[in-house]
Write a structure and sequence with these properties.
homotetramer; globular
Chain lengths: ~270, ~270, ~270, ~270
């Protein structure tokens, strides 16, 4: 029964991705992380409506690409599902999406100052960071992207890029895999915080186009992405009180395992 | 016996609201959160004097709207009770009040720069954020709002709005419910922090009046407010070491509950 | 045997004050908190040399006012004892001193911008914040205040005030009691952080002289000082894993104490 | 068998140094800390590729100075080993190296504003902080220092100094001992954060050359370095849940040890 297991694994990973990004202070009570269904590209997975730091595997539901739940449900759903459905429709290469209001990204959504890759890890944002202003297509709104045409407009603004800033609202980030998405989402937020501090110092000299291409590619290889995932994942375990690593080893030195064994388990 | 239970519930919620807002770094050793009595609109509930992060249900006492304790007590009371009593008198639509000195709000109280809604969640501050300067009515004081006439002056400055900035002192926020108050208090503080960073980047383009109305209404609906409350509440439980969620599940995988059951309990 | 107990109590309080201020990120690996001996005004109490966050009652030693240990010892001592001895000699009204390099205070020591009380709790710094530059009296040094004449120079610069900024180094704060010192030290640091953010917004309008006097006096009364102490103390207990408050109550609801009893214990 | 023990000790210390610097938010998912082999100056010790906060003694491998593993291995290795090998080759006086992308250091790598010692603890950076721009020698790259000639170029830029800033990338810090390296790395990052805030206030008056020499020497003596190491080490233990200090004492007062005994154990 490989299909159910793949879906269970996806649910576990997606719930964890929600909690990891929240634990790194990029998501708070709002925002959401989704992924395309692992075996059916015409569906995507998304939690029921709750703070992303609280999302558990059983919260994850299936949606069609027009952002409707596959199975009828009476649980509360996120209002901004069309952000995700719109992008999965427009971008077959995208398999994971995060929408957020990170404190370091919002100042760029408000000031209009361009967000730029200012160090190699920020290069994962790509060469172009489009701005989308809901007023252009829809005039005065509540700024929430809840209608299919709003999701489609945002997806058009994203175009072939990997992040779109949403004026007076936040950002939406895309990835070819969930792991890549988590990496890109967190390091763009870190890059933004650094760029603001560089503005305090008075001058910002970003990467050039060629450096962005090269550094973006290098850092999104499986090795760096897996390394960062492990790091944020352990930090989440620590925050949730489920981390059992060094604790068992140093707290109870008498029961310490033989070194060889421990190493074998940790190697990858 | 519905009345005693309603009051007990209110005490629990109000104590928790004090601790939640403190846990989000909006309150510190000082400041206070109050609510109108759940069955007697001529009274309000407020803790005895202690840091809001420490407030427990048994600390909550009843006060008349002229800010006097209903029952004689020899515990130490907050000096600024009239902030709350004054607003409950002037505003029958207000059922919860928070007075605080949040680090992100204070710079606006000092610089005179206008606090503006710069993203949709900040729209909960409303279109107008009045400034109150104790010097105008009372000249040089210790800046504490402790006299009935001071509370009344502040309530007049608040007018029909939802937050009033107090020069060289802090802010006072109001809500129609305790849950709404918590949401508004925390997200105005977050909005203020973002606005300061946007000033670093050089330009601040806030929401317009229509967007403020629409986004404010949308985000103060029961769904978003409950979602944020659950998030801050779990974060408080984690900080207090009382969180039992994922911990039991991952720490002792053998005792894991059947998935269906778990989901049923978590759904709302 | 009242005298030994008073000294033991003082050691407990002083160790806790060191850890509390460090837990609030005002002290780091360096800096120190001292108090005058509770029964012998010709002596003061200070930890052996270790990070203030680690100080335990048994680390506390007695020193004469010329900053020499009363009993010979081979443990490592702080190099800057004369900061404390110098002030205890010059200021009989001072019974506690903290020397630190708080991240929010240092920018004022480097830029020369005047630190001002910008909200009521910052008024505890007083109307005058003198600057001391070690170059004036001693030319180029390692910036450490280790010689008796350096301590005396700093004490002269402090004069009758409550904090002295030390250029390119940090600050030294004084109090009439240990509790007052902790309050003043932490809230001046908070005031400094807020003032920096107000500079970002472009304008700083501080308290006037009369407001500083009135608000300083009000906040240093026993009530507010005890309230803040309790708050920082509980936060320390949480950080050290020794907090037993709400945990026992919510974790094991069956063993919950009768409400009346609990309240009686918590009241003061 | 003194040699194996020395190596085991070095592995323990190096793993801890990685985790300590990460726990102080100077390292994140990336960056690395290495040390020269304790008995063979022609080798250095470095973890396999993983987030430094996760590094355990068994992760530490031996490398030749041309940055190749001494024993063949199939575990993933850091790509930037030549940063370390290049410096150990060029600088026989250097016995520990840290490469990082600290949030407070990066703005200086982007803006070109000079990083200066602005308080005594920052003097450990030394009088000269060279800038290295990978474009000068290698044109457009992915900014990663992975080729031997790149490592050699960076080592030349470092010259006889103790830190080199890497434009659009981060910094590399050197020390004569591991303990000194940890001290210098963390306090330069703290100095950078303070300097940025001083820029907000408008003016930066750094230490002069003589003060840098004197304060740098003073603070890198064994006493201050050991004091800081103990502090960061206990903070790491707290973060990892392995701290057993005050917890046992206050949590179970009946089992409290005799004071004399406790003191004897803590003294050094």
């Amino acid at each position: 029964m490989p299909v159910p297991n793949k879906l269970d694994d996806a649910r576990d990973l997606l719930a964890r991705a929600n909690r990891m990004i929240a634990n790194e202070d990029v998501l708070d009570a709002f925002g959401h992380v989704t992924m395309r269904h692992p075996t059916d590209p015409g569906r995507f997975l998304m939690s029921r409506s709750r703070g992303p730091e609280l999302v558990q595997p059983n919260d994850i539901l299936e949606f069609t690409l027009d952002s409707k739940p596959v199975k009828p449900t009476d649980v509360r759903l996120y209002g901004e599902r069309v952000i995700h459905g719109g992008i999965y429709q427009a971008r077959p290469d995208v398999n994971a999406v995060c929408h957020h209001h990170a404190p370091s990204i919002l100042p760029f959504c408000i000031s209009g100052t361009e967000l730029k890759p200012v160090y190699h890890l920020g290069a994962t944002m790509g060469r172009t960071v489009p701005f989308w202003d809901s007023r252009d297509d829809f005039g005065d709104t509540n700024l929430i992207v809840a209608k299919p045409e709003e999701g489609a407009s945002l997806a058009r603004a994203l175009g072939p890029n990997w992040i779109v800033l949403m004026r007076r609202h936040g950002a939406t980030v895309a990835g070819t895999t969930l792991e890549e998405l988590v990496f890109r989402t967190i390091y763009i937020a870190r890059n933004a915080a650094v760029q603001i501090q560089a503005h305090v110092l008075g001058h910002v000299a970003p990467l050039n186009a060629s450096e962005i291409n090269l550094a973006g590619e290098y850092n999104l290889r499986p090795g760096p992405v897996a390394r960062a995932w492990e790091y944020w994942s352990v930090r989440l375990d620590k925050a949730e009180g489920t981390w059992r690593g060094p604790k068992t080893k140093t707290a109870a030195p008498k029961k310490r395992q033989a070194k060889g064994k421990t190493k074998a388990k940790r190697s990858r």
